Amino acid sequence: MKTASVLTVYQEDPLNAGTSLAYLTQIFLTPSDWFFIRGHGTIPLVGRDTYRLVVKGMVQHPLELSMEELLTQFPQRQLVATLICAGSRRNELVAIHRYPKLTQIWTSHTWCSVPASTNNLPGFPGLTGSPQA
User: Fold this and answer.
1) Among the ranges 46-60, 79-93, 118-132, which has the highest mean pLDDT value?
2) Of 25, 36, 76, 114, whose CB is crowded by the most CB atoms within 10 A?
């Protein structure tokens, strides 16, 4: 289904955007261009040929993977899931109970109360071992 984007940008930097509840209640699966965006910093630009995911530190098996390895060496599956922003409805929380140090931070941003989206998302089940040989 081809849809026009109805994403509303609430803040440019960091990027925060969402789709109104009026649109989200019309369909079960949220089109990709309707998905909410919650940014807490800049969006990094990474080169597909040069990007490396490095897992190190307090792990049993340090790991370094290229973008190509991430996309091809793990089994993939689709999963219908709903993603919801953990900071959802913070304005309502502040209205009920004031947190002096946090209230100024929380209310200085424009947050909509519907940062939720549902779609058939790609993923990697059981990503605990090594890539397939």
Assistant:
1) 46-60
2) 36
Give me the DSSP letters along 66-133: EHHHHHHSS--EEEEEEEE-TTTTHHHHHHHS--HHHHHHHHTS---S--EEEEEEEE-TTTTSPPP-
Residue 133: inside a domain, yes or no? no
- Distance from C-alpha of 106 to C-alpha of 42, rounded to nearest angstrom: 19
Domain that holds residue 98: 8-43+76-123
- The residues that bridge with 81 in the sheet, in sequence order, are 119
Is residue 30 in some structural domain?
yes
Are residues 49 and 115 in contact, defined by beta-carbon separation less than 8 angstroms? no
